[in-house]
Design a protein that fits this description.
By secondary structure, the protein is mainly α. It has helices at residues 3-35, 38-59, 62-70, 76-100, 102-108, 114-129, 131-139, 143-174, 176-181, 191-214, 223-258, 260-270, 274-293, 300-324, 326-333, 346-362, 364-368, 372-397, 399-424, 431-450, 456-482. The protein is globular, with a radius of gyration of 23 Å. The protein starts with a helix and ends with a helix.
Length: 483
């Protein structure tokens, strides 16, 4: 099987693992926005903003370090157990510290309910402990088992969301005696809290399911391997914090500056942009192990260039479709029309997520050459851009300022990564065509939203025109990929 076909196959399998859970999560947005007011939805959003920060802090770049050293060290088992023992030890220390200071920390981070903060701690710890088992499944090519476990996780989460937010309230409305009997179980003033409880149950179940994977190895701890992994991972940790700031600081600032209701509407509309991140995540899950495993191939740079071009083509295609049918998409994913006030951010956020995906593709140069500190510098640049532009734009143009800040941050990051990366690990990217497709997609999306919004005939024509142009420019390459 050709490397291109191998990559496509892995990406499709991992795509199920990434896209199906995230797609179900996106579908749950309708349940959440239909159940929670915009103010209540802001509580849910803030919870997962801090969950993202906790995830980065507790894993401190060890997942990427694991991929790197699993492929370079002779004793694979030691890499697995050393990485897991490291995360397990730091997680126990974090758990004890966070629970001891939970009341003070909950108030500091803006949690009005300290119980929510306790749920956040336990979810974060459990999610950290499954990082290495899942990374092991990916690196050894057990994509089907990885996918199965991920799908089970999201199905458990979905079941309890539906139970707490739909089934129990419906039954309570129909049967008043039942409502009284479950009074101590279901509380209407705890609606957002049930989402977190569902997450905790799913995370605990997933942890129990991956435990048998670890028992396959004879536990041993290698200080030399750990030292090398930490040296490699700490810049990725800093880069992760910067990335999380790029993704989430806007929501925290919008709540402080414009109120919970506006932030909730913004966060709900922002979820539509997650559709693009599904594609980006599927790509990353398949690409990261693929890039490391094929780094020594003499044709690797050409393969990486080909992958990027088709990533751009598919990403732009998705943007054109989503923006062209934005009102339909909004009806599907958003319940209360109070969330529609922020739909204007969607085209910008979609392009921002596409830029992020391009940056993830380009960033392989510093991972393969062990120059991860460059990733840290570029991510810090992006975070600084985000902070500066949020401060300048939100007071002037409200939540649209947050969307434009995100686009500018990711756009500047991909430009920096490309310029610096070509000096250290030259890849013959088809820059001309990549830029052409990005400009074409931005133009079509802009016209669809600003001039032809709701005109689905024009949207269909734009989609067909884009496909026609792609086929005309890439038909020879398509024939090669089919072989």
């Amino acid at each position: 099987m050709s490397t291109a076909k191998s990559f496509i196959k892995n990406t499709l399998v991992y795509g199920i693992a990434a896209v199906l859970p995230k797609a179900i999560n996106v579908l749950l947005v309708r349940l959440h926005t239909g159940t929670l007011s915009t103010s209540e939805y802001s509580v849910n959003t803030s919870f997962y903003v801090w969950a993202a920060y906790f995830n980065i802090a507790l894993t401190y770049g060890m997942e990427t370090a694991f991929f790197r050293f699993f492929n370079t060290e002779k004793e694979k088992g030691k890499v697995v157990t050393t990485a897991f023992i490291s995360l397990f030890t730091t997680s126990l220390l974090a758990l004890a510290t966070l629970l001891f200071f939970k009341n003070s920390l909950a108030a500091l981070l803006g949690f009005s309910n300290s119980f929510y903060f306790s749920l956040l701690i336990w979810i974060s710890i459990l999610d950290t402990l499954v990082v290495i088992p899942f990374a092991y499944l990916r690196v050894v090519g057990k994509s089907k088992k990885y996918t199965l476990l991920r799908v089970i996780n999201i199905l458990i989460y979905t079941f309890f969301n539906l139970l707490f937010l739909w089934a129990l309230p419906k039954i309570s409305e129909i049967n008043s005696s039942f409502s009284e009997s479950i009074g101590n179980v279901y509380r209407a003033d705890f609606k957002e809290g049930y989402i977190f409880v569902a997450n905790l149950i799913a995370s605990a179940a997933t942890f129990l399911m991956v435990l048998p994977l670890l028992f396959k190895f004879q536990f041993s701890f290698d200080k030399k391997i750990l030292k090398k992994m930490l040296s490699y991972s700490w810049p990725i940790f800093i880069a992760g914090l910067a990335y999380t700031t790029n993704e989430n600081l806007d929501k925290l600032l919008l709540e402080d500056w414009l109120g919970k209701s506006v932030m909730g509407a913004y966060a709900g509309a922002y979820k539509i942009g997650v559709i693009m991140s599904l594609f980006v995540m599927a790509f990353r899950l398949g690409a990261e192990p693929f890039f490391f495993n094929h780094a020594q191939d003499k044709n690797a740079p050409k393969t990486y260039a080909l992958i990027l071009k088709w990533f751009v083509i598919l990403g732009v295609f998705f943007v054109v479709i989503i923006v062209g049918y934005l009102d339909v998409v909004a009806q599907i994913f958003l319940g209360d029309k109070a969330y529609y006030q922020a739909l204007s951010i969607v085209p910008v956020i979609l392009m921002a997520n596409l830029f992020l995906g391009i940056y993830n593709n380009l960033s392989i140069w510093y991972k393969l050459t062990d120059r991860t500190h460059y990733g840290m510098y570029i991510s810090l640049w992006g975070a600084a851009t985000t902070v500066l532009l949020l401060g300048l734009l939100i007071p002037q143009i409200g939540f649209m300022g947050a969307a434009w800040a995100t686009l500018a941050a990711y756009g500047s990051m991909l430009l920096l990564s490309y310029c610096i990366g070509q000096k250290h690990y030259a890849v013959p990217y088809d820059l001309k065509n990549c830029v052409f497709y990005l400009v074409l997609g931005a133009g079509m999306s802009g016209l669809s939203f600003l001039k032809f919004r709701g005109n689905f005939t024009v949207s269909a024509l734009f989609i067909l025109l884009f496909l026609f142009i792609v086929y005309g420019k890439e038909k020879e390459e398509l024939k090669k990929i089919k072989r």
